[in-house]
Design goal:
With about 800 residues, this protein is α/β, with parallel strands linked by helices. It folds into four domains: about 90 residues, Alpha-Beta Plaits (2-Layer Sandwich); about 350 residues, Peptidase S8/S53 domain (Rossmann fold); about 160 residues, 3-Layer(bba) Sandwich (Glucose Oxidase, domain 1); about 100 residues, Immunoglobulin-like. Helices cover about 20% and strands about 25% of the residues. The chain contains 19 helices and 42 strands. Strands 6, 7, 10, 13, 15, 16, 28, 29, 32 and 33 form a ten-stranded mixed sheet that branches. The protein is globular, with a radius of gyration of 28 Å. The two termini are about 50 Å apart. The structure holds 2-acetamido-2-deoxy-beta-D-glucopyranose (NAG) (4 copies).
């Protein structure tokens, strides 16, 4: 074992940081010594699990000894030792002097300031409804994903939810599945997390909160010192990836359908590192380290940084490099693209070893309608039951059925947040008009409370109109479910037409008091989904490419996002505590949106591919999903993307390779392989990244023979961020189909680029590799990205599609 340590470099590479920018007290420190995983994956050192455990202990106590010898007692707290993927620690320091000491210490490779992480859920779906529409039941639901463990770095899990009940899975006495015996997760017990929570469906559950505690943001009463999900986000993502099959979605007494994870037979390992308030990278890094040590097959991260991290390159921050080591260990990494769309380069998931997931709106809509006594009718939203029978009920403005001399103020009356001012005899049997005011925007008022008030005062229902000053762009809480009839008239025209009707019909005395409520209406059922049959559309909030090399947003030769899945208005499991989202408090299911929701769809599909092809590498599985993705609908029309104000045909910067097609992804015909060493070569070609920055970030330097371009990485896409003259791009495809197949290569050239490819026809046998040589030649300066594709059509019906994105610049460095 000792000989290994001679490999260790004794030079100290320290990240420099701007000391007056320091706000966080927590830092992640990487050491020069190697982490445990190095010895598991290096051919020469295939250590046993015990060897790795011994090494882990030694690394951890080594950190303690190092710190004790270097720093004054009481001047720091070590939060974590990272031992598996990284050799380093997270430390909470009390002064800059401590940092300086660390900076100058021998054995320290790099120091990174901790940064905040966010959940990628959004509460502002553009049109309400429109969930996945399908919870595909692939390959016999219950066993789909069998033997695969999906790890989720998220807000924890609600173990009491039916989506996670034990459906008599084969487990041994430790609650660990036997079929996939390589998984060795632990189950922490604590608040709302009894020993029985790990039931064979949930096979591991731990939580990581030390940085959140150090920051003073963790509140035990609210956030629970256990893997229990007090937010809802983690239960939602876990059930989307691997929730049980055919679980009735019941919210406020109504069955909205049945939910099923993408891989109902897969097992769930929970690593809670995010909270209602968000979280910290150093907790997330600890969670990832543990998950890979536990040997999950797949990691799903519906989280990311709030902006591009500072530093030499977006690919070299601690989390990105750690995830590179995770792929080296064979773990598939999926991450939400971010919710910064539709502006370009809003992507928050950067590296080519990560599969970044975009979100789509699909064809399900929830539309509610109101019919007025005048014969007019309007549509709006509201997951609410209808008014009784075909009866028209009198309607009344809140202000007209309230005490006028109460001290609750006019606004509160309008927004129906308080039962007190309402006059019981006047409200009974009426539909009450309430107004969506700025209080709703500032979250001091909520639509859920409107429904609550209406129920308590015994009115027939509510009509929520828009305040012209607020407008109707982002209405908060429209995806909450209600027990009382109600409609949200989420457009100004409908709102003002309703008021016109009410004012013209209502008879008032000379003092202005209503003497007769003669305006009437009935509200229809808003809980019935409508399926439009429309193709998926890229959601406006879904973060867009091009990918960026750094915080200066210099664009990279990497395609981001990679793939798209449903993300808007997804029904899935929730946690009734719902600390992060007051609109859905108390519910077991929630309809929410975001790239957070799209990501576990892809993680689940990956489990099905992994089950079918256990030996495929992470890069091969990503390649399989990308090359088979749909870019057109059933009629051959292109998939569209929501931009700021219109729809336009989606580009690879909107949806990557396209919308996931799980049945085709299982049988892709050809795959693009990439190894760890290729990623190092990639990093060494990133503009502004030198040998030393790679060495600092990864502990290994660049090869002597360097690749010229990042576009040389063998991915299932070709992105050239600045084409001047011509560029040669090599791609190697490996046949994974059965028997021999002949492929024909077709290119659709991007505007301003001529592409030649050879060979144009090739024959492959199983496992054979074919080298494709592409030459991209600029023919016209576009000063904009233009898009094309390479399509390989096999004689056995495989279609392998490779998106091409090129920017023809006028000169180098432009
Ligand atoms: C799961 O359910 C089966 C059948 O009901 C039972 O035999 C098994 O002990 C359960 N497993 C756990 C870990 O509770
Ligand atoms: C912690 O959370 C509880 C419950 O939400 C709250 O009542 C309490 O004030 C919080 N404590 C602190 C210190 O913020
Ligand atoms: C997936 O691909 C198959 C085969 O080309 C096609 O029939 C199907 O419509 C595609 N889409 C989905 C969602 O399965
Ligand atoms: C595939 O092609 C090789 C030669 O290119 C041939 O030897 C082999 O028999 C073929 N296999 C099948 C299943 O046709």
């Amino acid at each position: 074992m000792e000989s290994i340590f001679t490999l260790i470099l004794l030079i100290s590479f320290i990240n420099t940081w701007d000391s007056h920018l320091i706000e966080a007290k927590v830092f992640m420190v990487l050491m020069e010594e190697e982490p445990g995983v190095s010895f598991k994956t290096k051919q020469a050192y295939r250590w046993s699990d015990e060897d790795v455990m011994v090494y882990k202990e030694r690394v951890s106590s080594g950190h303690d000894i190092f710190l004790q010898s270097l720093l004054q007692r009481g001047s720091y707290t070590k939060l974590y030792s990272y031992t598996h993927l990284l050799n380093g620690f997270a430390i909470d320091v009390t002064s800059e002097k401590v940092l300086n000491n660390l900076q100058n210490a021998k054995g320290v490779r790099a120091i990174h300031e901790d940064v905040k992480m966010e959940k990628f859920t959004t509460h502002t779906p553009d049109f309400l409804g429109i969930p996945s529409g399908v919870w595909p039941t692939l390959g016999g639901a219950k066993s789909s994903g069998e033997g695969v463990v999906i790890g989720l770095i998220d807000t924890g899990i609600n173990p009491f939810h039916p989506s996670f009940s034990n459906q008599s899975s084969p487990v041994n006495s430790n609650g660990v599945l036997t079929k996939s015996s390589k998984f060795k997760g632990k189950c922490a017990v604590g608040d709302q997390f009894p020993p029985t929570a790990c039931n064979g469906k949930i096979v591991g559950a731990q939580y990581f909160a030390r940085a959140a505690i150090a920051a003073g943001e963790f509140n035990t009463t609210r956030d629970y010192a256990s893997p229990f999900d007090t937010d809802g986000h983690g239960s939602h993502t876990a059930s989307t990836a691997a929730g049980n099959h055919q679980i009735p979605v019941i919210s406020n007494n109504f069955n909205y359908g049945y939910a099923s994870g993408m891989a109902p037979g897969a097992r769930i390992a929970v690593y809670k590192a995010l909270y209602a308030f968000g979280g910290y990278m150093s907790d997330v890094v600890a969670a990832v380290d543990q998950a890979v040590e536990d040997r999950v097959d797949i990691l799903s991260l519906s989280i990311g940084p709030s902006s591009v991290p500072a530093g030499t390159s977006s690919f070299l921050n601690v989390l990105e490099t750690q995830l590179l080591f995770a792929t080296k260990a064979g773990v598939l990494i999926f991450q939400a693209a971010g919710n910064g769309g539709p502006s370009s380069s809003s992507i928050l998931s950067f590296s080519p070893w990560i599969t970044s997931v975009a979100a789509s709106v699909t064809d399900r809509r929830y539309i509610n309608s109101i019919k007025l006594g005048s014969g007019q009718s309007f549509t709006g939203t509201g997951l609410a039951p209808p008014t009784d029978g075909e009866v028209f009920f009198p309607i009344a403005a809140a202000i007209d059925v309230c005490e006028t001399n109460t001290n609750t103020g006019l606004l509160t009356v309008d927004s129906c947040q308080n039962t007190e001012p309402f006059i019981p005899t006047l409200v009974r049997g009426k539909l009450i008009i309430c107004t969506y005011t700025f209080d709703f925007e500032f979250e001091t008022a909520s639509i859920a409370t409107v429904a609550d008030t209406i129920q308590k005062i015994g009115a027939a229902g509510f009509i929520l109109t828009m305040n012209p000053d607020v407008g109707s762009v982002q209405i908060k809480g429209t995806t909450a479910t209600f027990r009382v009839p109600g409609i949200i008239l989420n457009n100004m025209q409908a709102s003002s037409a309703l008021w016109d009707y009410y004012n013209s019909e209502t008879i008032r005395s000379s003092s202005g008091r209503v003497v007769d409520f003669t305006a009437t209406a009935r509200i229809l059922d808003g809980r019935q989904a409508i399926y439009t049959g429309q193709a998926p559309v890229v959601a406006s909030y879904s973060s867009r490419g091009p990918d960026v090399n750094n915080a200066l947003l210099q664009t990279a030769d990497v395609l981001k996002p990679n793939i798209m899945a449903p993300g808007s208005s997804i029904w899935a499991a929730w946690s009734p505590n719902s600390e992060g989202d007051q609109f859905i408090k108390g519910q077991d299911f929630a309809l929410v949106s975001g790239t957070s929701m799209a990501t576990p769809h892809i993680a689940g599909v990956a489990a099905l591919i992994k089950q079918t092809h256990p030996n495929w590498s992470p890069a091969a599985i990503t390649s399989a999903m990308m090359t088979t993705a749909d870019v057109a609908d059933r009629h051959g029309d292109p998939i569209l993307a929501q931009q700021s104000n219109q729809l336009s045909p989606a580009t690879p910067f909107d949806f990557g390779a396209g919308f996931i097609n799980s049945s085709r992804a299982i049988d892709p015909g050809l795959v693009f392989h990439t190894k760890f060493q290729n990623y190092i070569e990639f990093l060494c070609a990133v503009p502004g990244v030198d040998d030393m920055s790679v060495r600092r970030a990864l502990g290994v330097g660049c090869p002597n023979k360097r690749k010229a371009w990042c576009s040389d990485l063998n991915t299932a896409s070709v992105t050239v961020s600045n084409l001047v003259g011509s560029r040669k791009v090599i791609r190697k495809v490996t046949s994974v189909g059965n028997g021999n197949e002949t492929y024909k290569v077709n290119i659709r050239e991007p505007l301003g680029v001529k592409i030649t490819v050879s060979p144009r026809v090739f024959k492959v046998s199983k496992n054979a590799i074919t080298v494709l040589r592409l030459v991209l030649e600029a023919t016209e300066v576009t000063n904009a990205y233009t898009f094309g594709e390479m399509v390989l059509r096999g004689s056995k019906n495989h279609v392998v599609r490779v998106p091409i994105a090129v920017y023809v610049g006028s000169s180098l460095g432009s």
